[in-house]
Amino acid sequence: MMDCKKALSETGGDIIKAIEFLRTKGLASAEKKASRTTAEGRIGSYIHDSRIGILIEVNCETDFVSRGEIFKELVDDLAMQVAACPQVQVVATEDVAEAVVSKDWIKQTIATIGENMKVKRFKSSRLAAEGRIGSYIHDSRIGVLIEVNCETDFVGRGEIFKELVDDLAMQVVACPQVQFVSTEDVPKSIVEKEKELEMQREDLQSKPENIREKIVDGRISKRLGELALLEQPFIKDDKLLVKDLVKQTVASLGENIKVRRFVRFTLGEDTD
């Protein structure tokens, strides 16, 4: 109320100018909050027609704000905004900041809520073949975007295939150690590093070289399996590996299916 009175006094009672004065004041206040730490927030996603997917992390200062409807709406709208701007590749630069997130829009939300906010990162994915892009968000703190391909649009839009994609997204959320789709996707540099470390382990030094090689190969195979999505026990049936779930779905639908890629965000994780 005092701010409104001051605004009217400053603008000589002109209501329109008073509103502009308040908006300017609010944005200025938002600028001051820009240096405050943003450790909370939420992970959000937007999927358009199962062919375009966005995963986004937006940070704020407190858990209380992150769970409020205003902040949730902001995150949802920002994800949709990125989906509508296929040329956007980064959060903000001089060239694309307005197209990405509309800086003033965020500042106005900061002024409304009274906390600093920051778009930390986003990832966009566009379907490379037939199939669908899906997402799973757990408690707004862990999010996954996944692309799974099939042969025809008919299968891609069916309920069986949709359920598979949803289950695979949930699987990635449940397996924080998973970094790759299959063991074949693990870079050679990682394999060589694992082998180097294993060969130096004390429990192998007394073994003959040929035995040591076999033991190391077995350990590396196990380690690579831990990093690969397809090698994980299925969360809904731990007697079934994810790769076998995919094979069963292939047999059921009569089409080849390939898990193409995924990305996972965990709120507040170090991205450097």
From TrEMBL:
Principal location listed in the UniProt entry: mitochondrion
Record flagged with keyword Heme: no
Keyword Protein biosynthesis annotated: yes
GO MF terms held by the record: translation elongation factor activity
Source taxon at top rank: Eukaryota
Organism: Linum tenue
Keywords: Elongation factor, Mitochondrion, Protein biosynthesis
Purpose of the protein: Associates with the EF-Tu.GDP complex and induces the exchange of GDP to GTP. It remains bound to the aminoacyl-tRNA.EF-Tu.GTP complex up to the GTP hydrolysis stage on the ribosome.
HAMAP family: EF_Ts (MF_00050)
CC annotations in GO: mitochondrion
TM ranges: none
Name this polypeptide is given: Elongation factor Ts, mitochondrial
Domain Translation elongation factor EFTs/EF1B dimerisation stretches: 53-269
GO biological process: mitochondrial translational elongation
